[in-house]
Amino acid sequence: MPHHICVQCGTEFAASEAPPNECAICRDIRQYVRWEGQAWTTREQLTAKYAARIADDYGLTGIEMTPHFAIGQRALLVPDRHGNILWDCVALLDDAIIAAIRAAGGLKAIAISHCHYYTTMIAWSEAFGDVPIYLHENNRKWVLRPDRRVAYWSGEQLELSPRATLHRVPGHFSGGTILHWTDGADGKGALFTGDMLQVTMDRQYVSFMYSYPNMIPVNAATVRQIGEIAEPLAFDRLYGAFAQRVIARDAKAAVRASVRRYIEAIS
Q1: What H or E segment, with its residue span, contains residue 191?
Q2: Is the bond into 67 cis (omega within 30 degrees of 0)?
C-alpha cells in the first residue's frame, strides 16, 4: 500500500489504499488547508516531478526541492565529528540525495525542529541504515506515520554527541527543538532553529510566531523564555529554515536584540 503525502505540508502518512480524509497538521491553526482543497502525492510521484538542489549553505550542505514544494524548507547535513546529523527534512529522497549523503559519510542521526518538516523522515531513516529520528515527546501526536525508528525524548535537552545538543523551545510548538553545534562556524558555534526562531528577510534578526501563515504571535513571556534558553549557548551563526536564511555572524547578539525588539513591539 502507498504512503500518501500531503501536498500542502509534505507530511507522509501511514500506508493506506486510499488517501486519508484530511491532514491533521494542515487542519491545525498553525498551518492551513490549500485553497484548492486537500491533495495527495507519493514519494514515487515526487521523484518523477522534482529534483534535488544540493548546494553549499554557509559552509554546510543544504538540500532542497526544485521546483518549490509544500513549505519549501531545506534540510542541512551537519558534519559532526561523531557522525553526520541530518537537521530538518524534505519530502524528496532521490538517488542524488542518497549518493551525496553517502559520499559525505552517511548519517548517524536525524533531528527535526517540528512537525511541519517531518515529511518523509521514516524513508530517510530506512535509506541510511535505520538511523534514529530524535523528536520531542510533546510532538508525538503530530507523527502521522508512527514507526519504531522514532526516538522520543523528554525534558529540556538531549545530547546527540559531545558537540551537538538538542534543546526544547516553546512558542511555535511545545515540542519544538533547536540544535546547538559547538563545532559550527569554524568553532565559534552554530544554532539551527528551523522556524522556532525564524530568520527575518534582512538576515539581521529572528522572530517568533505561533502561526506564520495565519500571523498569530506568541506572548512576551514565551519570547523571554526562548531568549533564556539561547543565552547560555555559544554560537556565532544561526541557520534558519530556508536556504540562505542564515545570520552568518554575531548571531547571539542578533537573538538578544530580536528578543528585545519583539517584546517592545507587542508591549
Answers
A1: strand 190-194
A2: yes
Beta partners for residue 55, in sequence order: 62
CB crowding 110-147: b at 16 or more within 10 Å, else e: bbbbbbbbbbbbbbbbebbeebbbbbbebbeebbbbee
Q: How far is C-alpha 256 from the chain's CA centre?
A: 22
User: Cα separation of 201 and 131, whole Å?
Assistant: 34
Residue 81 is classified by DSSP as: T
The reported pLDDT for the residue numbered 134 is 98
d(CA 148, CA 266): 43
Q: What is the pLDDT of residues 27-55, one digit of tens each?
A: 999 999 999 999 999 999 999 999 999 99
- 3-class DSSP state of 161: strand
Q: What is the pLDDT of residues 54-79, one digit of tens each?
A: 999 999 999 999 999 999 999 999 99
Count how many domains the chain has: 1
Q: What is the pLDDT of residue 205?
A: 98
User: What integer is the mean pLDDT of 227-235?
Assistant: 98
Q: Tell me what the mean pLDDT of segment 71-90 comes to.
A: 98
What is the residue type of 231? Answer: E
Which amino acid is it at 262? Answer: Y
- Which of 223, 160, 165 minimizes the C-alpha distance to 189? 165
What residues make up the domain containing 155?
5-266
Chain length of the chain: 267
Which region, left, alpha or beta, applies to residue 7 given φ > 0 means left and ψ of -120 to 50 means alpha?
alpha
What is the overall mean pLDDT for the chain? 98
- CATH of residue 189's domain is 3.60.15.10
- Grid coordinates given for 113: 525542529
